[in-house]
Amino acid sequence: MSTPLTGAVPGTRRRTSAAADAGPEPADWVLALTAGPGREDALRRLHALLVRAAWHQVLRMRGMLPGAGAVQLEELVQQTADEAMVAVLGKLSTFEGRSRFTTWAYKFALVQAAVEVRSQAWRSRQVVLEDAELAVDLGPSVEAYAEAADLAGAVQTALAEALTPHQRRVMLALVVDGVPIDVLAERLGTNRNALYKTLHDARVRVRTHLEGSGHLPPARPRRRRCDAS
Amino acid sequence: MRRVLTATHLASLTRDTRPWLSCEECFERLDAYAERRAADPAHADPVMDTHLAGCSACAEEAESLVALLREDAVGPRPR
Description:
By secondary structure, chain A is mainly alpha-helical. Chain A is built from 9 helices and 1 strand. Chain B is mostly helical. Chain B contains 4 helices and 1 strand; from the N terminus they run βαααα. The mean pLDDT of chain B is 94. Chains A and B meet through helix 1, helix 3, helix 5, strand 1 and helix 6 of A and strand 1, helix 1, helix 2, helix 3 and helix 4 of B.
């Protein structure tokens, strides 16, 4: 994978360069980042990790920002890494060692970068939140077309009858219109968690409606969730 | 405005995303989950897998982290 502008993968180049210049990484990242003479070095290493993760994510989603040039991408990555750095240091006391520290830190930069790319990609796009006429196009490749068409009709009925207007608008925006959940959350002044709960509840209602109409088999009794991880 | 439902939409609209797991809890578990998936692509975590099947944003971030860990495993370790 390479950037179209430079022909190199920025994160890889930085990583290789950092690897050549630096000694072994801290055995105890939390301790190294908290105090002591090695703190500055640990902070520098952490930032390099976050830059690498941010580049990784931005390059994965590069297609969402077709107009962005090298400078814009570099700014996006640096800004994302800086924000992730603040988040990681703020959450340092919550690191429980369930994974390697580097993996734990990576996720802050990845998520931050993904959210920022989605936000930039949709910055000038309108999000329409309204009830709209629903048509069905199952395409020629759907097997058992009649059954699928019957299910599609039942889903349309369930959307209309089983959901609140808010649930319906959120569900259609996320699932049918493809609005990224972070973008919709930003537009509605809420957060990803709340919107995913709305979507989850809407799916449960749709399924219950379809079970009632005989379009889905009844749900099996569920065991309580066992948190093994 | 007119929306067109496809077979893919229908599958997502009717997806069973129980048991419930929030995006916040998903984020909390993401690092340990990704390490297991990176080490063993067949690793199954039904609660996480269910959430990721129903939340495309979390799914993208999880796939990305797994991919990054695999890159680290075959390339020079990041410092």
